Amino acid sequence: MSRLTVNDQPIVYKLDPDTPLLWALRDASNLTGTKYGCGTGQCGACTVDIDGHAVRSCRVPIGSIEGTYVTTIEGLSRERNHPVQLAFIAEAVPQCGFCIPGMVMAAAALLARNSDPSEDLIRAQITNLCRCGVYPRVVEAIQRAGRAMRGEEVIPAGPRPGIDPADSARLVPALVPPPAR
């Protein structure tokens, strides 16, 4: 048994201690925002925060992190209004979206330690892979999130989760469907 705190909830995993954290989160806890990408720790799609550090969860056996605090994308902000999440939306970072949860988690961990990282530091710390090639927008979004965290900028929030699509269209005009033909 491995005892962890996941998204502020104490969890006991009755799994083999060699089970990768990724599979404990996805299969046992149904936290599917953490993605399986490569399984070798290279792509970063599975990045979570463990005690303040961005970690590739596919490479971490749950038995090795007993007693730690794990935050997944689902636990970063219940209302999806963490400055990194808002900045990624405002800077139009997501395309296919598969790599985004891991990038958001890596960026949030970086900004928790340094809310004013240089472009070079961002590029050195955010090594997640993205097939869509959104890297310049990722840098801009992380810098913008840092400004928001320092109180230098306010990033407008988009529609809240669970909002009616018609209400979303009023709040975000780009969501208005095209006229019928």
TrEMBL record:
Segments forming a coiled coil: none
Annotated EC: 1.17.2.1
Keywords: 2Fe-2S, Iron, Iron-sulfur, Metal-binding, Oxidoreductase
InterPro entries: 2Fe-2S-bd (IPR002888), 2Fe-2S-bd_dom_sf (IPR036884), 2Fe-2S_ferredoxin-like_sf (IPR036010), 2Fe-2S_ferredoxin-type (IPR001041), 2Fe2S_fd_BS (IPR006058), Beta-grasp_dom_sf (IPR012675), Diverse_Oxidoreductases (IPR051452)
Molecular function (Gene Ontology), one example: 2 iron, 2 sulfur cluster binding
Keyword Oxidoreductase belongs to the record: yes
The 2Fe-2S ferredoxin-type domain, residue ranges: 1-76
Location of region: Disordered: 153-181
SUPFAM superfamilies registered for this protein in UniProt: 2Fe-2S ferredoxin-like, CO dehydrogenase ISP C-domain like
Protein name per its UniProtKB record: Nicotinate dehydrogenase subunit A
Organism the protein comes from: Sphingomonas aurantiaca
Organism lineage: Bacteria, Pseudomonadati, Pseudomonadota, Alphaproteobacteria, Sphingomonadales
